[in-house]
């Protein structure tokens, strides 16, 4: 079967021109066909529609003279008079211009120089993509992101200021309680006030370490607990007590709200161990805070090498304030409290429900 090529089929120039015009009109984006002198040979219907011009005022006219000179754009001159003759084509050349009656436009220009055989004059195909709306949407998006970042920055500043005020308030409250403890005559009252002072200071310690870890976003738990342990060792252990606090664990993060509750639990358990696990000046008292992670689940444990107590009880009374605080916080976190105690010491574990359920199934 004989195949007819393009040149054989369109031997008549008028037919070839008609086909070329039809191709130009088919393109959705505005297209111009220019001769070597940059006069318009043909334009697509989309060009006439987009730029509000008529064929009679366009065809045969110098490009720069169209629309009373509205296409006399310096960057367009660079494209057509320098870049195209040197390189033969140009893609996505961005041009911004203010068109009378149309307003500001941002356009991508794509141009290609077409050379013909047999001495025909060179023509230039110029495609015009209007990206004004796209650019406006991008600017709106960038502005929205900027405003969001600014709002987050302002919130961070406010949170830091709030944190600073809370810390100051806790210090003032702790100071007042300690002052009252030195003035009361009842020894029982003095003990209770001293205990309250320590708890206020423990909350201050948790707040301080949360602030150091960042008030928003996920909290890296092991560094957070390490700093908290160091703060508790400094503030809760008297100089004559030989007790060390160590933190061990895996990589893991929590929300600031979860981290606060976990920090309060750890603080209560450390305070409990300092107060009850070492009734004598033990030379090698050790408290280990461990944080383990299994996927999205976690386990916090505080172990000491103190005197120990029977299984199922804290080192202090089951009805003590610290016990109630730990159980209430664990319940809020959906976690379970377990205590193991023997003559080698006491370990209290706070385990997220899914974690311990999985462990129980495996057992």
Q: Which spans of ≥5 residues are poorly predicted at pLDDT below 50?
A: 1-6, 311-318, 355-363
Reading the helices and strands in chain order gives HHEEHHHEEEHHEHEEHEEHEEH
Strand content: 15-25%
Distance N to C terminus: 79 Å
Question: Describe it for me?
Answer:
The model is unreliable at 1-6, 311-318 and 355-363 (pLDDT under 50). It is built from 11 helices and 12 strands. The chain is rod-shaped. The chain has helices spanning 6-9, 13-26, 45-51, 66-69, 74-87, 132-183, 187-213, 221-236, 256-277, 321-332, 353-362, and strands at residues 31-34, 40-43, 89-99, 103-114, 123-130, 219-220, 243-249, 253-254, 285-294, 297-304, 335-342, 345-352.
Secondary-structure topology with pairs:
Blueprint: H1 6-9, H2 13-26, E1 31-34, E2 40-43, H3 45-51, H4 66-69, H5 74-87, E3 89-99, E4 103-114, E5 123-130, H6 132-183, H7 187-213, E6 219-220, H8 221-236, E7 243-249, E8 253-254, H9 256-277, E9 285-294, E10 297-304, H10 321-332, E11 335-342, E12 345-352, H11 353-362
Parallel strand pairs: 7-9
Antiparallel strand pairs: 1-2, 1-5, 3-4, 4-5, 6-8, 9-10, 10-12, 11-12
Quickly describe the structure.
The protein has 363 residues and is an alpha+beta fold. It has eleven helices and twelve strands.
Tags for this model:
alpha+beta; 11 helices; rod-shaped
């Amino acid at each position: 079967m004989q195949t007819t090529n393009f040149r054989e089929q369109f031997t008549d120039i008028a037919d070839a021109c008609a086909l070329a015009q039809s191709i130009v009109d088919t393109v959705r984006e505005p297209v111009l066909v220019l001769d070597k002198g940059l006069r318009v040979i043909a334009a697509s219907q989309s060009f006439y529609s987009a730029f509000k011009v008529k064929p009679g005022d366009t065809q045969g006219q110098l490009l720069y003279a169209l629309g009373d000179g509205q296409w006399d754009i310096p960057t367009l001159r660079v494209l057509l008079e320098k870049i195209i003759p040197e390189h033969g084509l140009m893609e996505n050349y961005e041009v911004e211009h203010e068109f009378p009656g149309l307003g500001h436009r941002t356009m991508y220009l794509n141009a290609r120089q077409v050379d013909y055989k047999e001495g025909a004059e060179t023509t230039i195909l110029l495609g015009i993509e209007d990206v004004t709306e796209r650019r406006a949407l991008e600017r709106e998006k960038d502005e929205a992101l900027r405003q969001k970042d600014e709002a987050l920055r302002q919130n961070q500043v406010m949170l830091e200021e709030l944190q600073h005020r809370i810390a100051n308030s806790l210090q003032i409250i702790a100071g007042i309680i300690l002052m009252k403890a030195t003035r009361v005559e009842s020894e029982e009252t003095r003990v209770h006030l001293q205990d309250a002072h320590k708890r206020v200071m423990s909350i201050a310690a948790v707040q301080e370490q949360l602030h150091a870890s960042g008030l928003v976003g996920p909290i890296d738990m092991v560094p957070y607990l390490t700093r908290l342990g160091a703060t508790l060792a400094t503030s809760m252990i008297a100089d004559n007590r030989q007790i060390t606090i160590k933190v061990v664990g895996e990589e893991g993060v929590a929300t600031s709200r979860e981290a606060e509750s976990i920090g309060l639990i750890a603080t209560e358990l450390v305070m409990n161990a300092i107060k009850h696990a070492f009734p004598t000046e033990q030379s090698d008292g050790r408290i280990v805070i461990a944080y383990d992670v299994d996927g999205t689940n976690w386990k916090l444990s505080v172990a000491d090498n103190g005197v120990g107590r029977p299984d199922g009880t804290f080192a202090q009374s089951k009805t003590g304030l610290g016990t109630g605080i730990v159980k209430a916080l664990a319940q809020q976190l959906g976690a379970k409290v377990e205590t193991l105690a023997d003559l080698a010491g006491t370990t209290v574990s706070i385990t997220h429900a899914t974690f311990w359920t999985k462990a129980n199934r495996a057992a």
